[in-house]
Amino acid sequence: MKRFTCINDREEMVDGVIEGTKEQVLAWMRKTFPGMRKRGKSEMMTALEFFHEGEITAYKTADGESVYLAEVEKGQETINNEKRDKENATSRKTVASKPQTNDEILWVWKLTWEDINELETCVTIYRSKDRAKAAMEKDIRKLASCRAFEGEEPKRKDALHVSLAGRFEWAIEKVKVH
């Protein structure tokens, strides 16, 4: 059975958090953070969400802070609720995630969407080329179906570069993340 907990942006457990089922932890979060809301789909995904191994859902508190409902990885010790030892900062409890070192390189696919007339740009990264391409195609279909673009066909430079009506541009490229 999957176990969940609540963490902050620094991957530290929130003070007093419980560990349990998704429903138990979410109920605790709602009680602890009144006015909490799920992060909107239009808001950019954080690196924590991208690299976390397991389920993770982002929420915003009424104070604008980010908290996450995160799956505790298998094989990790149960994270208990004891107070952190102030004298030994290295003993702080964290939710396990894939360790990242400075010399570890990860290749990802970056989807860039631009509205040239409005000078607006959106960048999203994906772990696979297929997911990035599927997201791009979905975005193109959605925008091309608008009345403003009736009769306009997307112009494809190649499979990873598309433009629409000389205004919108999509590009997918492989990038290195350290």
How many E strands? 9
Which structural class fits the helix and strand makeup? Answer: alpha+beta
Low-pLDDT segments: 75-95
In this structure, how is the largest beta sheet organized? 5 strands, antiparallel
What percentage of the residues does DSSP assign to strands (E)?
Answer: 25-35%
Share in helix: 10-25%
* Overall 3D form: elongated
Q: What is the succession of H and E elements?
A: EHEHEEEEHEEE
Radius of gyration: 20 Å
Strand order of the largest sheet: 6-5-9-8-7
Report the total helices.
Answer: 3
In angstroms, what separates the terminal alpha carbons?
33 Å
Mean pLDDT comes to: 79
Please describe what this structure looks like:
With 178 residues, the protein is an alpha+beta fold. It is 18% helix and 30% strand. The chain is built from 3 helices and 9 strands. The protein has helices at 22-32, 47-51, 129-144, and strands at residues 3-7, 37-38, 56-60, 66-72, 106-115, 120-126, 155-158, 161-164, 168-177. It has a 5-stranded antiparallel sheet with strand order 6-5-9-8-7, covered by helices on one side. A 4-stranded antiparallel sheet has the order 1-4-3-2, covered by helices on one side. The longest helix has 16 residues, at 129-144. It is elongated and about 55 Å long. The chain starts with a strand and ends with a strand. Residues 75-95 have low confidence and may be disordered.
